[in-house]
TrEMBL record:
Coiled coil: none annotated. It comes from the Eukaryota. This is DNA polymerase lambda.
Amino acid sequence: GQNHDGKGYTGPNEWLAKKFEELHDLYSGQVGKNSFAIRGYQRAAGIMRRITYPITTGTQARAIPGIGMNLADRIDEFLSGAQGRAFYENTEQARCVALFKDIYGVGRQHANEMYRSGARTIDDLRSGKFSLTAGQMIGLQLYDDLKARIPRDECKDIFEIIRSEAQAIDDQLWVEIMGSYRRGQDTSGDVDILITREGGEDNEKKGILGDLIQRLKRKGLVTHDLGTPTDWTAPEAKWMGVGRLSSAHKHRRIDILCIPYKYWGAALIYFTGNEVFNRSMRLYARKNGYSLNQRGLYKGVIRGKDGLKQTEGELIASKTEQDIFNMLGLRWRHPHHRRP
Ligand code: DCP
Ligand code: MG
Ligand code: MN
């Protein structure tokens, strides 16, 4: 449900990965099922996501380490379409899980848990019998509003209010609209805003996010907090919440990220996305001996056997998007073309 984990896989076998996840979820709650086989379905989903070529037969899949006879048979079943696919897509559980996952903050596992505890409809979840976090309750309360796409004009209107309130605090602030809007999409799932302070030095000392959100609440634009920073005045801070233009408008998800000026270019790339583009650009950097994240491009990063960073490395580009593309030897890509 619009949270950042687990979405955006687009590999050639993603649909097979999803099928295996469905099987995993379907059997997880059933007594008498072999738990080893159940975990095998989850592992198979991971394997499907790592294979870079399309799998077209079970026999072909059998050659992949970790894919045994049972899984290969399942793949043939999925590929045969007819019985296999329709059957798994039409289970009540699959339908309910898809429905619940549309709630902000609800992931696949939690959706399955609630199904197993007896939930079948959105109204069931509103009964109070199921455990939900504060954020998920807001997601549930605003279910219809938040699942609707936001037209481009409305994104722009929300952005203009945020920009003008931010610049009323400090006219040196740079405020940009990011995400799918910057990529030129007609509609967005949320409004993503990036803020920094030109020149930088002051920005390293005190951030304005706390002030800004207070002002936006007073204006009536911001209506709910979903994720708040531990330090509202940190120069690098993120806020996630909900707002609306007026009571005649729908509630919309809004993300605001404040970053120190020196990270501007790297943060632009990160927050423009899309997620798959970011993943492939980071992988490209890594294959060439660099490391790219939302703060910059680093060289000399040492990684352990687990792939985790052991040293930060040296920051070699971060001020502008162009600097980072150049340093990687990539031609600059317009945001509208940032697809994998
Ligand atoms: N992002 C990322 N990895 C994530 C989440 C986000 O790299 N796990 C980056 C890329 C996204 C950007 O942040 O494009 C904004 O995130 P959103 O979830 O708001 O996604 P989009 O704005 O791209 O699409 P939507 O219209 O659904 O909001
Ligand atoms: Mg977005
Ligand atoms: Mn967002």
